Amino acid sequence: MKQADLAAASRADRQRAQQDVVPLQGPLSLDEAVARALKYNLARRTRLMEESLAQGQLEVGAYDMLPKLVASAGYRERDKDLITRSKDSVTGRPSLANPYISSDRDAVTTDLSFTWSLLDFGQSYYATQQNADRVLIAAEHRRKAMHNLIQDVRTAFWRAVSAQKLQGKVQAGLAAAEAALADSRKAEAERLRNPLDALRYQRQVLENVRLLEAVSQELSTARLELAALVNLPLAQDFTVSEPAETAAAAWHSMPVEQLEEFAIANNAELRESFYNARIASAESRRALLKLFPGLSFSYGPKHSNDSYLINQTWRETGAQISFNLLGLLSAPSQMRLADAGVAVADQRRVMTQMALLAQVHIARLQYGNALRQFDRANTIWQLDSSIAQHVANAQQAQTQTQLELVSNQTTALLSELRRFQALAQLHAATGKLQATLGLEPAVSASADLPLDQLTAAVGSSMRQWEAGQLPAVSAQ
C-alpha cells in the first residue's frame, strides 16, 4: 500500500472513530464519563459488533435444519447421434433390426429437487443449539469488557480530578522553590551565608523540586487516559466535575455469603463456563449421531425437451439409507473424545467457580484495605496542610525560613497527592469488587439510548452501588 493510501485510510479511521460522538459541553462528570465510555468506547463497540456477528451466525445456522430445495437446469449437445445396438435377451444374438437413435443431439433439462436428510437435520439441530450458546458467550464477553471499562473509567476519572486540583498548586510550589533557590545562590555569591550552609540549603530545595516534578509527571497523563477511555479528542482541553467523595463501608460490612451468591449468579466468566459446558455436551450428542445410519428422502418434478422421450415431464420420488460400516471402528474413540470434552468443560466450570469465590474474598479484602488506606492518607493530609499553613503564617511573620515554607508546602502537596491516589485506589478496588460480582448499570441497548438518558441511568445505578444495594438476582 502506498504512503498516500495509508494516510487517507488513517484519516478515515480517525473520522470514523469520532462518528456520532456528541461533543462535550461543560465539565465532565463521573456519570457522564461512564455513560460516554459505554456508548462511544471503541473496544466496547467492537464487543457489540462481535455479539451481533454471533447472533447473525445463529440466524444463518438455523436455516441448515430446513430441507434442501435445489433448482437446476442444464443443456447438452452432441456432434453425432447417440446410436445404440441391441441383442436378444434369450439367445444373446445381435438384433437384426437397424441400430436405434434414442436421444436428440441437443436437449435442455430442468429439475426441482426437494431433499431432506434426517442425519443432517440432527447435526444442524445441535449445531444451532451450540450457536445459541455462543451468542450468550459473546454477550458475557461484552459484559466482562463493560465491567472492566467502568472500573478503568472510575480510576482514570479520579486521577484526572487529582491532576486538575493539584496541577496549579504544583506549579506554584515549583515557582516558590525556584525563587528560593535563586535567593540562596545570590546569597552564596555575595558571601552573605556560610558556603556549606548555602549548598545544603540548595540541595534540600532541589530535592523538593524533584519531588514536585515527580508529582507533575504523575498527573500529566491522567486527562489523556480518561479522554481515550471515553473517546474524546485527545487534543481537546476539558475539565472534570469533582463528585462528592464517598467512601462508605457498606460493601465491607455486607455478609460475604451474600456476595458469593450474587457473584455465582451474575459473574460473566462463570456464566461463560456454564455455556461452554453445554456446548461440549451438545458436541457429544453430535458425535453420537455420526454412529447412526443416514436416512434421506427426495422428491421433485423433472422435465426434458428430448423429443425421443415419450414422457418429457415426470415426478421422481426416492429414499436412501446409508451407513458407514468402517465408522464403527472409530466409534469408541469418538465417544471417549466427546466424554473427555464434557469432563474438561465441567472441570473448567468447577475451577472457575472456585476461583470466583476466591476473587470475591480477595476483592472484598482489598476494598477494606483501600478504605483504611484512604482514611489514613486523608488524616495525614489534613495534618500536613495544617502544618504548612502554620509555617506560612510564621514565614510571613519572619520567624521561619523560605526553605521551611517550601519544604512544608511540598510535603502537604505530596500528602494531598497520596490522598487522591488512595481515593483512586479505593474506587478501583470498589470497581474490581463490583466487576467480580457482575454488577452493571440497569440499561439495555446502551448504543441506542441518548447520552443524557444513559447518563441518568448510569448515575442511578452508581448511587445504588455506593449505598451497597445489590439488585435482585436474575433467574436465568
Task: Sum up the structure in keywords.
476 residues; alpha+beta; 4-stranded antiparallel beta sheet; 66% helix
Describe what this molecule looks like in 3D:
With 476 residues, this protein is an alpha+beta fold. The chain has helices spanning 3-17, 30-40, 42-62, 118-189, 195-220, 222-230, 250-253, 256-266, 268-289, 327-396, 402-437, 451-466; strands at residues 68-77, 83-84, 100-101, 106-117, 294-304, 313-322. The strands form two sheets. A four-stranded antiparallel sheet has the order 1-4-5-6. Strands 2-3 form a two-stranded antiparallel sheet. Strand 5 and strand 6 form a beta hairpin. The longest helix has 72 residues, at 118-189. The mean pLDDT is 80.
Question: What topology emerges from the helices and strands here?
Answer:
Blueprint: H1 3-17, H2 30-40, H3 42-62, E1 68-77, E2 83-84, E3 100-101, E4 106-117, H4 118-189, H5 195-220, H6 222-230, H7 250-253, H8 256-266, H9 268-289, E5 294-304, E6 313-322, H10 327-396, H11 402-437, H12 451-466
Antiparallel strand pairs: 1-4, 2-3, 4-5, 5-6
Helix pairs in contact: 2-4, 2-12, 3-4, 4-5, 4-6, 4-9, 4-11, 5-11, 8-10, 9-10, 10-11
